[in-house]
Amino acid sequence: MELLGRYVNGNVRTMIFADGTKVRETDDDEFMPAYAENIDIKICNRCDRGCKFCHEGSTPDGKLGDILNENFVDTLHPYQEVALGGGNVLEHPDLISFLQKLKERKVIANITLNQVHFEKNIEVVENSINEKLIYGLGVSLVNPTSEFIEKISKFPNAVIHVINGILKPSDVELLGNKGLKMLILGYKNLRRGSEWLAEDHENIVVKQMWLKENLADIVNKFKVLSFDNLAIEQLDVQRLFTKEKWDEFYAGDDGKNTYYIDMVERKFARSSTAPFNKRYDLMDSVDEMFTVIRKETKK
Ligand code: SF4
């Protein structure tokens, strides 16, 4: 496996490999990173898909972040990871220049795209990966067609993103046992996600109950199955692990190794679902922002 980088962050020794594998070790009882290992960054709120459950509330004329002119970008650490999302990040005209800037700083950039945008822009994605502008690729599922499965299977670092309450049994039937990686995200009761939950409540809850009940089976159908912290809570994922395995696999609470920056509204917070009174004005340094988040997390 190609080693992308090895670094020490607080009391954590980390190795990152080209296939997305990350190994973290410490000699202490607890991981205490000095700076955030991974930052979720929203770069635009523009998107033409109009998904009813969009917790970002993205629209075709949504705002773009001024991503080439924010000081904090120059304070990112080598091998620090950023997960870029939107909106549709491909709608940001400065995306490639921004990715080049991150690459110069040796920052590891990952992006998330909707399936439709991924399939329409597969060459851009391929070129960005070949040029090492992006490493991880998240693709939000719309429809698990055989063409889609064939296309995504060509990207070893691709992870299919699905939402608890939107994912249905037929999706798992079609995607399962094909050596794919899947990330289950919790349902975010925010912006349009909140309106859609009120409108289609029963349907969403039925799907969430099905997923929770069948999770142990579903795990075995994927090469890798991972969860965000909201899904871990909604699906009570911990019940499927022994204590030892949980300690080995759980990456930590939001705000411990990670936080969220909204470059559109120029705010930062513990996560993208943080309440609006827990979102703070953007600062000029990623470490200063992490200190604020860590203090909040400790409280
Ligand atoms: S959920 Fe994603 S694809 Fe859908 S409207 Fe929102 S940003 Fe666009």
From TrEMBL:
MF terms in GO: catalytic activity; iron-sulfur cluster binding; metal ion binding
Keyword Zinc: no
Entry-linked Gene3D superfamilies: Aldolase class I (3.20.20.70)
Cited InterPro entries: Aldolase_TIM, rSAM, rSAM_sf
Alphabetical UniProt keywords: Iron, Iron-sulfur, Metal-binding, S-adenosyl-L-methionine
Keyword Metal-binding included in the entry's annotation: yes
Domain of life, per lineage: Bacteria
SUPFAM superfamilies with a match to the protein in the record: Radical SAM enzymes (SSF102114)
This protein's name: Radical SAM protein
Protein species of origin: Congzhengia minquanensis
